Amino acid sequence: MNAPNVSGWKPGTPEAPSGTSGITTVTGNRGLMLEEPLIFEIGTTETTGVDLPQPSADIARLGGLARSEPMGLPGLSEPETVRHYTRLSRQNYAIDCGIFPLGSCTMKHNPRLNEKVARLPGFADLHPLQPESTVQGALAVIDQLARWLLTLTGMHSVAMSPKAGAHGELCGILCIRAALEARGDARSVILVPESAHGTNPATAAFAGYAVENIPATAEGRVDLPALKARLGPDVAALMITNPNTCGLFEREMKAISDAVHAAGALVYCDGANFNAIVGRVRPGDLGVDAMHINLHKTFSTPHGGGGPGSGPVVVSEALAPFAPLPFVRKTDGGFELIEEEDGVEAAPQTFGRMAAFNGQMGMFTRALAYILSHGADGLRQVSGDAVLNANYVLRSLDGVLDAPFGGTGPCMHEALFSDEGFAEGIATLDLAKALIDEGFHPMTMYFPLVVHGAMLVEPTECESKATLDQFILALRSIAERAKAGDESLHQAPQLAPRRRLDETLAARKPVLAYEG
Amino acid sequence: MPRYFTDEHEWIDVSGETATIGITDYAQGQLGDIVFVEVPAAGAQLAKGKEAAVVESVKAASDVFAPVSGIVTEGNSALEDDPALVNTAPESDGWFFKLTIADEGELEGLMDEAKYKDFVASL
Amino acid sequence: MRYLPLTEADRSAMLDVVGANSVDDLFAHVSREHYLTAPIEGLPPHANEMAVERHMSALAAKNLSAGEAPFFLGAGAYRHHIPASVDHLIQRGEFLTSYTPYQPEIAQGTLQVLFEFQTQVARLFGCAVANASMYDGSTACWEAIAMAGRLTRRDCVLLSNGLHPHYVSVAKTMGRFNGDTVVYAEPTLTPETDFAALADAVDGDTGCVVVQYPDILGRIGDMTALAEACHAAGALLVAVVTEPVALGALKSPGEMGADIVVGEGQALGVGLQFGGPYLGLFAIRDAKHVRQMPGRLCGETVDAEGKRGFVLTLSTREQHIRREKATSNICTNSGLCALAFSIHLTLLGEKGLRALAAENHRLACLAADRLAKVPSVEVLNEAFFNEFTIVVPGDARQLVRDVADKGVLAGVSLGRLYPDGDRRENGLVVAVTETVTEEDIATLASALEEALA
Question: CATH class for domain B3-104?
Answer without folding.
Answer: mainly beta
